[in-house]
Amino acid sequence: MKCFRVFVSVFLFIVVAAQGKQTPLTFSCADQNDLYVTARKSGLSCKRFNTAALAIENASDDSVVLVLSEKYPAELTTIDQETLAAAEKKHLHLFIEFPETNAFPEIQFGSTKTIAWERGVVADDVFGDALPRLHIVAVHDCHYLPCKAAKPWLVIARVAGFDIAPYGIPTNASPLLFEIPERRIIVATTKLSNFISARYAPSADWKRIWETILTTLDPSHGSVDLKWTPEVAPKYSAAEKLPRNFERKAFDASAKWILNSRLLVGPSRTNEIVRLLSGQTETIEQPLHNEYANGTCGILEGYAAGIRYDGTQLQRLPLRADCHAESAMVLALNATMNRDRRSSEVAANLLDYVYFKSGMCGGPRADEKHGAFGLIGWGAVSPAWLVANYGDDEARVMLGTIAAAASLKNEQWNEPLAKGLLANFRVTGKLGFAGDRIDIPALEKNGWKYFGNAETVNLAPHFESYLWACNLWAYRSTGFQPFLDKATNAIAMTMEKYPAGWRLQDNSERSRMLLCLSWLVRLEDTAQHREWLKTVATDLLKHQQPNGAIHEWLGGTGGGHYQIPQSNEAFGTGETPLIQKNGDPASDQLYTTGFALFGLHEAVSATGDATLRDAEDKLAEFLCRIQIQSEKNPYLDGWWFRAFDDRRWEYWASSADAGWGAWSIEAGWAQSWTSAVLALRDKKTSFWEFTSSVDIKEDFEQWRPRMLE
Q1: What distance in Å separates the CA atoms of residue 463 and residue 395, rounded to the nearest whole number?
Q2: Of the N and C termini of the chain, which has fewer Cβ atoms inside 10 Å?
């Protein structure tokens, strides 16, 4: 036994000594390359050289050399046949990415291609059970060299799916990562070593990919444990103890985001933005710095979902009315809570831009004889946006205006607000439904009475319910009975057909419905109205997780323009949910959670329901935890991406939506209502109570006989 112990001790000493003398990884790369920096910080022995030739010359025999791309995507990685021959002579194990096409004469490389909707797909079992075949990863803005490989590890392909490609790998998929085992070489046809700065996702999957590459190149290193911090991440982990006043901190950060987002249009950008919008262009490079702007030139819509190879995102150009009013709402609340003069100024200027300067309330909408009089355009400048009147967007413009007016104690928007309420009311049909949108040409042709007399039925809370909420608020303010009658009738018809008769049976629709049902209880506190509210809230909260997240859930595959992709080819061709199937762990901060928080907050205030209060508290905490934090990308810091996967605790989903994918950011929509409700919670009030001081009755009585005849 004693001899055995001595043997074990000697063996362990030899193993430890051998580990202490591991052959270093030799890199050909810049000193800030993501993989090189990560490998060093993770405790791996590394040495670096500026060229492949020097790296191979200085590498020990039978060791690993990684030749990484440094001028991607403009130039391919330089490595010639002579250098490869020297590596072979030394029995080196090579990883080469984005190589010159003449480096491997036996492989037919095509010219560099750039992805549009393609994603990385695991095509082999090399990564183990954690990353099985058909597993999906994001290789943002991938520039790659098309080729053929007998057994690729990763391919680039257009595939539907959340985690797994349910329809398989298309035949036109191209290898991203493959091995040439007889030459001890692993080739990447793109740059994979920028996985941190390019924000490749999910992070754990890229950890697995790189650890597999490194251990395959040199099994003698044993297990590799790479560690890094993503450059864009949630503010808090799932289990982290939250600081005192974390909700107030989250609100303050969100208000600062609007001012620091680089979306406020400064004078130096105005002419270019108008030119591009006039030509139907909808994205633009973001400015390098945050130009001072006070809101007089408006605010851009947000950030497009596509992440570029350097980790940046393009800005979405549209000057949307709803984004202006909802941003103004957040800034106005910030002005009240933090006595911030700049927020007050910018908020007022953004609303003035919508109502008086941008043209969104001009032209036919300013012509008292026109059917569009009093309506608010979808957006400014671009003909495609100026022509449209979406009822839901107009409702959120008016709600944002109401909140801003209450915060700033400013009456200068009362008249356009009264006209907006009347204009939308008069194009709402007899039964209380307005339809999805009514464009200027239709109003020009038919006049407003045509729509007001129609028996439209549109069981779609996404498009209708916030207009009903506006009508209920307007009834409280003016006492005009038809506001209440139309809203109540449409709500009753909608609830009668719930849920099977709704156009979409998803959690976004349920979250939207909560607001009008809560305010209906405020005005008519009946058992039936409370039951409607409780039913919708209960069904929504069936999908709330213990951490507070509300998972997306869809009846069927969707309907109309909002469908889950039913093929690989359908991915990226329309507006879609973030899930491929029910059970995918995605929450939607653009269409669901912020509106759910708003609705729950108003429901709790109206009913005092303890169960709903608990759900609201959990959701608020969840949203504070997943707020974006990024020092490197300050234009993102403090807001919310559309998608979040709460099992991974990462921004991830099926980014199939043609306009507003997983990493999109809106300056308005549900993200802004998350911010606003955090402020209302801090002030211990509800929207209904807080806005009771906004009095439009005088302006309403002035315009009612002229607009309703």
Answers
A1: 9
A2: N
Q: Does any domain span residue 18?
A: no
pLDDT band at 433 (very low <50, low <70, confident <90, very high): very high
Compute the average pLDDT of residues 515-532: 98
- Beta strands 174-180 and 185-188 are antiparallel
605: left (phi over 0), alpha (psi -120 to 50) or beta: alpha
Identify the pLDDT of residue 2: 44
Q: Are residues 226 and 257 in the same domain?
A: no
Domain shared by 262 and 330, yes or no: yes
Task: Please report the pLDDT score of residue 101 as a whole number.
Answer: 86
What is the reported pLDDT for 291?
Answer: 86
Are 200 and 257 in a shared domain? Answer: no
| Residue 370, pLDDT score | 97
Q: 161 and 272 share a domain?
A: no
Confidence of residue 396 (pLDDT cuts 50, 70, 90): very high
Confidence at 21, pLDDT banded by 50, 70, 90? low
Specify if 623 maps to a domain. Answer: yes
**Tokens standing for 628?**
């974006």
Closest CA to 665 of 326, 244, 228: 326
208 and 313 belong to one structural domain: no
**pLDDT of 197 over the 70 cut:** yes
CA–CA distance, 512 with 207 (Å, rounded to integer):
39
Domains held by the chain: number: 2
Tell me the two tokens of residue 405: 């007016």
> To which residue do tokens 């991406």 refer?
641
Q: What is the DSSP string of 386-440?
A: HT--BHHHHHHHHHHHHHHHHHHT--TTHHHHHHHHHHHHHTS-TTS---SB--H
Give the domain extent around 189: 35-230
The CATH number covering residue 532 comes to 1.50.10.10
Q: What is the Cα–Cα distance from 138 to 152, expressed in whole angstroms? A: 17
Within-domain flag for 14: no
- The model's pLDDT over 636-684, given as tens digits with 9 standing for 90+, comes to 999 999 999 999 999 999 999 999 999 999 999 999 999 999 999 999 9
Residue 151 main-chain phi, psi, to 5 deg: -145, 75
Distances (CA, A) of 196 to 311, 571, 639: 8, 26, 20
Contact 561, 525 (CB under 8 A): no
Report yes or no on 92 lying in a domain: yes
- Is there a single domain that holds both residue 272 and residue 301? yes
Chosen domain end from 195, 230, 265: 230
Residues 6 or more apart whose CB falls under 8 angstroms from that of 489 comprise 431, 432
